[in-house]
């Protein structure tokens, strides 16, 4: 193979993704022109064309230049713990600055406080226990009981109560406003980069973790991490996987405790989003890669504790999911054709992944086995979610919990600075040319 052959294949992979995006845009426009209500202003993304700059523009450019120029070198040389804290801090700066391109009010405050979001329904909760017991009764928009005159707003009812409960707790801590809650979500969501690095190191891949970290920090999906609850979900799931990985690297009580902690986080993840059941592929990949089968017992105990706790509190996950399937079938999803979104979804998630990930995916066979299994697990979750038909559009944010793991493939890329530039340019272009809803 000549020296230029890998570069040509990378260009071909990215070009194929560009063609997919263009096809999704053209077909989406034709559907809109034909009167099909796909509820997308700028297919395949839920966004509208609105070139603009904002107070976050200079900061976003500075962060991007800094990560490109010094990120790989610092990641290679810095002591581990300071590196993780620094990566989290820079990822937070990157995500917040991108959000502030739309301004503080529009880019942060209003994201979680609109009439369709979690904070809208927080005042309804006078008792957490009563909320959990009656949660499923207010999911369906047509109630059997005529006395039920209200139902949860879109995002509250469309998810299990665990996500809503987090925002209720934030409100009771005095962080219930759109600005405060938005900043908390950005802080939490940005920590996913550290969780991925911790996982790789626990699997004996510290060098790879250091190569991946700048790409995790400069993640184009940060456009939707700031501010959407799905960014928080991504980090929550990632830390659950990280604890499972840590458990596989330990022996004795420490391993059991880490496995239990991972199981508790993964169990609660099931009550953040119904789709996170697919996230179980990630800890499974960790266990398969390490063959530490004993860890499964501790993880399952943690998961079952959370399931039992929510069930005892009055919420049955299966009932909630069945109700959500009903309202989803009657929602805008009914007019969104499966034949289009089953492939256009992949174009949408490509915006969150970025060209570096697209180019890196063909290098999965060159990755160490644990890392390759993690990337394949993430891709498997995306494929299953896509084929299910329960995710028609908006997957640029919905699939963030899986997308952050696909970035692991970037550790196999040569010339990382070139690819970091491509990642940064995409994110900056999306946030400055489009007005995203999330």
Give the helices and strands, then pairings.
Layout: H1 5-33, E1 47-49, H2 57-77, H3 80-99, H4 104-107, H5 118-121, H6 128-134, H7 154-157, H8 161-172, H9 178-190, H10 192-202, H11 206-217, H12 222-225, H13 229-249, H14 253-269, H15 281-290, H16 295-313, H17 317-329, H18 338-360, H19 369-388, H20 395-398, H21 400-406, H22 416-433, E2 434-436
Antiparallel strand pairs: 1-2
Helix pairs in contact: 1-18, 2-3, 2-11, 2-22, 3-9, 3-10, 3-11, 9-13, 10-11, 10-13, 13-14, 13-15, 13-21, 14-16, 15-19, 18-21, 18-22, 19-21
What does this structure look like?
This protein is an all-alpha fold and 438 residues long. The protein is 67% helix and 1% strand. It is built from 22 helices and two strands. The chain has a two-stranded antiparallel ribbon with strand order 1-2. 52% of the residues are buried.
Give the number of DSSP strands: 2
Radius of gyration: 21 Å
Low-confidence stretches: none
Compute the number of helices.
22
Oligomer: single chain
* Strand order in the sheet with the most strands: 1-2
Distance between the termini: 44 Å
Structural class designation? mainly alpha
Please give the share of residues in helix.
Answer: 55-70%
Mean residue pLDDT:
95
Instruction: Please state roughly what percent of the residues sit in beta strands, choosing from under 5%, 5-15%, 15-25%, 25-35%, 35-45% or over 45%.
Output: under 5%
Based on CA inertia axes, which overall geometry fits? Answer: globular
Largest sheet: 2 strands, antiparallel
Q: Which sequence of SSEs, written as H and E, runs from N to C?
A: HEHHHHHHHHHHHHHHHHHHHHHE
């Amino acid at each position: 193979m000549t020296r230029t052959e890998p570069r040509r294949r990378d260009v071909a992979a990215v070009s194929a993704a560009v063609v997919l995006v263009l096809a999704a845009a053209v077909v989406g426009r034709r559907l809109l022109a034909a009167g099909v209500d796909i509820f997308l202003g700028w297919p395949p993304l839920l966004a509208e064309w609105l070139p603009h700059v904002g107070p976050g523009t200079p900061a976003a450019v500075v962060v991007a230049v800094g990560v490109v120029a010094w990120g790989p070198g610092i990641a290679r040389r810095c002591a581990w713990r300071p590196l993780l804290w620094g990566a989290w801090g820079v990822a937070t700066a990157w995500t917040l600055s991108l959000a502030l391109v739309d301004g503080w009010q529009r880019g942060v405050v209003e994201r979680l406080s609109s009439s369709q979001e979690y904070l809208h329904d927080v005042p309804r909760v006078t008792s957490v226990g009563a909320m959990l017991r009656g949660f499923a009764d207010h999911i369906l928009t047509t109630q059997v009981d005529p006395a039920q005159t209200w139902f949860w707003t879109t995002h509250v009812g469309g998810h299990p109560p665990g996500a809503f409960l987090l925002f209720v707790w934030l409100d009771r801590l005095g962080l219930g406003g759109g600005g405060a809650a938005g900043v908390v979500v950005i802080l939490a969501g940005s920590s996913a980069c550290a969780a991925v690095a911790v996982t790789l190191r626990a699997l004996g891949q510290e060098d790879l973790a250091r190569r991946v970290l700048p790409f995790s920090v400069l993640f184009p999906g940060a456009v939707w991490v700031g501010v959407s609850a799905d960014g928080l979900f991504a980090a929550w799931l990632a830390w659950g996987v990280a604890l499972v990985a840590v458990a596989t690297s330990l022996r004795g009580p420490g391993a059991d405790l880490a496995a239990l902690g991972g199981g508790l986080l993964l169990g609660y993840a099931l009550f953040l989003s119904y789709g996170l059941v697919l996230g179980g592929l990630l800890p499974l990949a960790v266990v398969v890669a390490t063959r530490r089968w004993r860890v499964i017992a501790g993880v399952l105990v943690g998961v079952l504790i959370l399931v039992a706790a929510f069930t005892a509190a009055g919420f049955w996950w299966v009932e909630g999911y069945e109700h959500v399937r009903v309202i989803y079938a009657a929602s805008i999803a009914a007019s969104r054709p499966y034949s289009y979104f089953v492939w256009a979804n992949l174009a949408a998630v490509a915006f969150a992944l970025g060209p570096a990930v697209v180019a890196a995916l063909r290098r999965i066979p060159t990755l160490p086995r644990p890392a390759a299994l993690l990337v394949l697990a993430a891709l498997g979750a995306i494929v299953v979610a896509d084929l299910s038909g329960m995710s028609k559009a908006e997957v640029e944010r919905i699939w963030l919990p899986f997308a952050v793991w696909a970035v692991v493939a970037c550790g196999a890329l040569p010339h990382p600075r070139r690819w970091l530039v491509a990642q940064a340019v995409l994110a900056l272009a999306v946030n400055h040319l489009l007005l995203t809803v999330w």
